[in-house]
Specification:
Layout lengths: L2 H27 L2 H8 L3 H7 L3 H15 L9 H18 L1 H11 L9 H20 L9 H23 L4 H12 L6 H4 L8 H22 L1
């Protein structure tokens, strides 16, 4: 294995270990020693990639954003908004990196971190899609995309937090579908709403679609 490849693998190992520790213990209770023990690397290797516990936390939060994946473009931009939320829901249940990033973003005791970045970034992405949906005539006339995006992100944060407390995310698919069924009729034209799939099973379908597209792209990237 080339030196650069080993460095990349070490960085991934450290991030995965940090995610595991942050998810289990939260930011304040987690220690560098815990992360070193979980990762099975030396202190020098860790500090080569990350300068502090805060740096590790930001690394996990950035990685969970990448792990969320990108929904394939849809002709109906409102469906793309819904798919973005449902894909996040599926990954939150299945991906430890995503769960750790969300825990850090929601951790009110992590005062050393700028936790607002995750919410703002996701809100901007949703607002962009809603703006496109409005330009295509999919939304009700009174809708302001940025306001609706912030409402959706905030409401989802509450729903996922409740699901984590009640069932450790086991019922998050259902709760998210319920949330969307209550919000979207107040955002989307009824003629568009009838075409949108809000089902709780859709997240898994989108994940499979994104994964298949990613696997198709890998050979092309290796040839580049």
């Amino acid at each position: 294995m080339a030196k650069q490849d080993r460095a990349i693998q070490t960085q991934r190992t450290i991030l995965a270990a940090a995610a595991s520790v942050f998810e289990e213990r939260g930011f304040q209770a987690a220690t560098i020693t815990d992360i070193l023990s979980t990762a099975g690397v030396t202190k020098g290797a860790l500090y080569f990639h990350f300068q502090s516990k805060e740096d590790l936390a930001y690394g996990v939060m950035a990685a969970q954003g990448r792990h969320m994946g990108i929904v394939p473009p849809r002709a109906c931009k409102t469906q793309e908004v819904v798919d973005t939320v449902l894909l996040q829901t599926y990954r939150l249940r299945e991906d430890p990196m995503v769960r750790a990033g969300v825990r850090l973003a929601m951790d009110q005791y992590a005062t050393e971190l700028d936790r607002g970045v995750s919410f703002q970034d996701w809100g901007k992405g949703i607002a962009t899609l809603l703006t496109q949906a409005k330009e295509q005539g999919e939304l009700l006339p009174h809708i302001t995309p940025s306001d609706t995006a912030e409402l959706l992100v905030g409401a989802y944060a509450g729903v996922q937090s409740m699901s984590q407390a009640v069932s450790n995310y086991a019922d998050l698919d259902h709760r998210t579908s319920v949330l969307l069924r209550h919000i979207m009729p107040n955002v989307v034209l009824s003629s568009v709403l009838t075409t949108i799939d809000l089902s709780s099973e859709r997240g898994a379908v989108i994940y499979s679609e994104v994964r298949a597209l990613s696997e198709e792209a890998e050979p092309a990237e290796s040839r580049a």
